[in-house]
């Protein structure tokens, strides 16, 4: 469900303060954040943000196409390793 328009997009205050401070100075450091639910705003463009996926931090470079999306969309939490390893080995032996 979408957030109310009158409330505006949710951006964690501490994250926004760090971005604004870096924009004022012109600095480009990697910022670590656990706030996967924060919306990407135009001020974030050009920065690299390390987003926590529950295990480690995934560095994501923010571009203009990402504005309006959530940070968590760009750091997957699950690793897909394929379906049933037995079926894959049977197909490989049948082909040879």
- What fraction, in percent, of the residue positions are helical? 25-40%
Strand content: 5-15%
Report mean pLDDT, rounded to a whole number: 90
Structural class: alpha+beta
Tally of helical segments: 2
Radius of gyration (Å): 19 Å
Uncertain parts = none
How would you describe the shape? elongated
Order of H and E elements? HEEEH
Largest sheet: 3 strands, mixed
Distance between the termini: 50 Å
- Reading side by side through the largest sheet, how are the strands ordered? 1-2-3
- Topology, number of strands: 3
Task: Outline the structure in words.
The protein has 96 residues and is of the alpha+beta class. It is built from 2 helices and 3 strands; from the N terminus they run αβββα. It has a 3-stranded mixed sheet, with helices on one face. Strand 2 (48-52) and strand 3 form a beta hairpin. The model has no long low-confidence stretch (mean pLDDT 90).
